[in-house]
Every structure is written in C-alpha cells, then in structure tokens.
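In response to reviewer comment 3 from the previous cycle, which asked for concrete evidence that the modeling workflow produces usable outputs, we include below a single protein chain processed end to end. The sequence was submitted unchanged, and the resulting structure tokens are shown without manual editing.
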Amino acid sequence: MEVALSILTACLSINELKEQVLEAFASWLRLKHGIPGSVLASQPLVHTALSSLNAEFISEASVNVISELIHYSARGSSGGVAVQMPLIHVIVPQVMSLKAHLKDSSKVLHLWGCRCFLFLGLYNKLLIVCILRTMLLSQ
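The workflow returned the following structure tokens.
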C-alpha cells in the first residue's frame, strides 16, 4: 500500500503526468480496501484532487478521485464509519464549498460539482444506514 501511494505521489511532481496519476489513484482506490481514513486524509494525492475544486478548470481525473474517495469512505471497513471520519472531515467541507459555484451553469465546474453532490448525497444515505445499523446492533 505505502509503495503504491509513494510512487503515485512522486509522479505528481511531473506536471505532464498529473491527470494520469490522479486517474491511476482513482482506479487504485476502486480496487484497494481497508485503508484507514486517517491515512488517506493525509495523502498529497487526496489534497491535490480536492484543491483542484477551487481551480478555474477542474479536471475529470480530480472528480473521479473525489467520487472514489466518497465511495471508499461509504464502503465501510472493519472499524466502521469511525475509521473513515478523518477522510470524511477532509472531503465534505471541500465538496460543500462548491455549492456557491453551482449557480453559474455556464461553468464547467457546474457539471463536476453536480456529480460530486450526487455522490455526496448517496454517501449521506449510506452513512445514515450505517449509523442506524450500528445503533440496532448495539441494542
């Protein structure tokens, strides 16, 4: 795990490869399971994807990473939602900051923002299900 993240992170410094690196990271997230949210929350790859939300041009690769991160945090792990909370605390404020930009439908950001909000909405539903399941199991 650490080797893959280190290699991808090292490749971020090559501007010409940034999109491919983010796409590779998104694909890796789809396949990898069991990484604590605290590990992902501190990754430069995550912060690079999230910081692009504030850029004039937001790349599809960044949105793919963010979508995968939302899926990843909702997927659950042996530690439950609590293990993913550090990642959730990093993702949610960044995606919510898009809300102000969604009013201007002339921006490309509009499409990407809508996609992120869609995934965040799905995530919220899954989070509620996880919380309810935890409450029921603890009774």
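The two ends are 36 Å apart (CA to CA). We consider this sufficient to address the reviewer's concern, and the full set will be provided in the supplementary archive.
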